[in-house]
Design brief:
heterodimer; A: mainly beta; Archaeosine Trna-guanine Transglycosylase, Chain: A, domain 4; globular; B: alpha/beta; Rossmann fold; 15 helices
């Protein structure tokens, strides 16, 4: 099975597809030495993200082991994660100081 | 790991042994180009200011010019000035001589009596210096003498998920071996600055990283520019980057994961060993200029769309994970990282391979941009000309 998605960190709940993936196709990625698969429930464009688990509305999307922002709707496993359902949570610099 | 380099009396070893033909101002740049073209072993830079600047711009230019002269890849310096610029050739020479014991000579076009007379003297001086430089033997240097600049430019969707993580892995491996790396482009930390700050070795460094981003954003705001407006761009979103956080996280991955031991101003020389940050523009040419002035002896440069850029003083190693870009622009690309995107190699594996690429370049292998003799620089400015 050819790898067609990349997991950036073990904590991530999305992988990034490195080919276009059509609905119904398998997404294949490496987790350490294991090869994992997941069925795409909708078309995923090149270099876009697919959910590895169900993510509730307001839940965090994790890539690189860090939060990319929060979801504006529930995203089910195998669905497309994009700017249409993910938004950045505003922070202010002063609160980031320690 | 060790490499064959040129030991210097002060600071790190060079991986090249250039005679640098250095203009004090735009009016000296063309003469410098002609002098360098006459002498094998000499390189020149084109400097587009040096006159009619506010003090802050002059200070930045001086940091860059003196930093270039002190860069370990430079054996000696031939300065050409005009005579009426803000910092004339003799003053620049004295400043450089106070910072380094390497040979430095200087000429002024007005004093010498015009272009031809200046070029004649400068060519003779550069020729003699290049002859001496050629006699210097390479010696085995410890990897701790390496200061690698890390840059990205012409990024695409593959940069954040493949080439940047691979170079981040390279940075971690080099730092673990005792080398130092600099990641710059502070404007691009914004959105992921809280994550980068977590790498700060101390609470002070943590806060310094946040402050650099806060100050940069405020600086641009004063010029009427909102650096978050329209970010990520529609092109970014189409390429899979959903939020500014995601764009920034992909960008900062090229700096690796090791503790950040120092945060430098533009063109400033590090005082620590390890993973270092420098507060520079996101403009790749300007950022590389600042890191070279800070003393980097090599630069690794990730790209998605491809770029030809090179620097006269340090080799720039161009890497891409976009297979199409590598094929189309192989004349400008040094390393193909597309195996990561193809899924046949991990970014960790490619990062380990990059260690050997860097080792070869340190030992003298020319990069594509170096073989072309490219010499791009851009000195950052804070204000209009006077």
């Amino acid at each position: 099975m050819e790898i067609n998605a990349l997991l950036m960190d073990e904590k991530d709940n999305v992988v990034t597809c490195v080919t276009e993936v059509a609905a119904g196709q398998n997404v294949v990625y490496r987790r350490n030495d294991q090869i994992c698969t997941l069925e795409a429930k909708e078309d995923i464009p090149y270099c876009h993200k697919i959910a590895l688990t169900d993510i509730p509305e307001g839940g965090e999307v994790i890539k690189y082991g860090e939060s990319l922002g929060k979801t504006s709707e529930k995203i089910l496993t195998g669905h497309w994660v994009s700017h249409n359902n993910l938004f950045s949570v505003p922070r202010d610099y002063d609160s980031e100081m320690i | 790991m060790q490499f064959w380099g040129y030991k210097r009396k002060e600071g790190r070893a060079g991986i090249r042994n250039h005679v640098l033909i250095l203009p004090t101002c735009a009016c000296g740049s063309e003469s410098c180009r002609i002098v360098a073209s006459q002498v094998r072993g000499a390189v020149n830079i084109v400097f587009n200011t040096g006159c009619s600047d506010v003090a802050a711009n002059t200070a930045m230019s001086q940091k860059v010019l003196t930093g270039f002269a002190c860069n370990p890849n430079v054996y000696g310096v031939v300065i050409i000035g005009l005579g009426c610029e803000t910092v004339p050739h003799n003053k620049l020479r004295e400043k450089i001589q106070s910072m380094t014991s390497k040979p430095v000579v200087s000429f002024g076009i007005q004093d010498e009596g015009g272009t031809l007379k200046t070029i004649e003297k400068a060519v003779r001086a550069a020729r003699d210096m290049a002859a001496e430089a050629a006699m210097q033997q390479k010696e085995l240097c410890d990897i701790s003498e390496l200061l690698l600049g890390i840059e990205c430019g012409g990024s695409d969707a593959t940069s954040g998920i493949a080439s940047n993580p691979a170079v981040g892995e390279l940075s971690d491996l080099l730092v673990d071996m005792g080398a130092s790396t600099i990641m710059s482009e502070s404007i691009e930390w914004i959105g992921g600055e809280h994550v980068l700050a977590k790498r700060g070795a101390t609470p002070e460094i943590h806060n310094q990283i946040i402050k650099v981003c806060k100050d940069y954003e405020a600086h641009l705001e004063a010029a009427g520019q909102d650096c978050r407006a329209g970010q990520p761009t529609p092109g970014n979103k189409a390429g899979g980057l959903s939020t500014l956080d995601e764009k920034s996280l992909g960008c900062i991955r090229k700096g690796g994961t090791r503790p950040v031991v120092e945060v430098l101003e533009q063109a400033e020389r590090p005082t620590k060993q390890g993973a270092i940050l420098m507060d520079t523009a996101g403009y790749d040419i300007s950022s590389v200029t600042s890191m070279v002035a800070g003393g980097c002896n090599a630069v690794i440069f990730t790209t998605g769309r491809g770029t030809p850029t090179g620097n006269a003083i340090v080799p720039v190693i161009k890497v891409t994970a976009n297979a199409r870009t590598y094929q189309k622009m192989e004349d400008n690309m040094d390393v193909d990282l597309s195996a990561i995107i193809a899924g046949t190699k991990t970014y960790q594996e490619m990062g380990a391979e990059l260690v050997h690429v860097v080792e070869d370049v340190c030992n003298g292998k020319m990069t594509k941009a170096e073989a072309f003799g490219f010499s791009d620089i851009a000195v950052d400015h804070v204000c209009r000309f006077v």
